[in-house]
Design a protein that fits this description.
- The protein is mainly α.
- The chain has one domain (14-74).
- Helices cover 57% and strands 0% of the residues.
- The chain has helices spanning 23-33, 36-45, 48-57, 63-74.
- Helix 3 (48-57) runs antiparallel to helix 4 (63-74).
- It is globular.
- The termini are far apart.
């Protein structure tokens, strides 16, 4: 399990984040603002179909992030 940085989840206590219940929130934050270690953890922790679903329906991802991940996940 990864220890989330406060800088990544500035609006809540990272200790209170549930990786299952808060999956969309975690995925969006890590894809937009995560470092290499966090993105690698995310990619290995969550199912690729969930990542695709979150990226496709997200309204909070930065457009550049969304476009990049649509392309990266397309071939998976």
């Amino acid at each position: 399990m990864i220890k989330f940085r406060q800088a990544l989840f500035w609006d809540t206590n990272p200790k209170n984040i549930d990786t299952e219940k808060n999956a969309q929130y975690i995925i969006e934050r890590v894809l937009d603002f995560g470092n290499d270690r966090e993105v690698k953890w995310l990619y290995n922790f969550y199912d690729k179909s969930l990542l695709k679903k979150v990226v496709a329906k997200s309204r909070s991802l930065m457009p550049e992030t969304k476009n990049l991940w649509i392309m990266l996940l397309e071939s998976k």
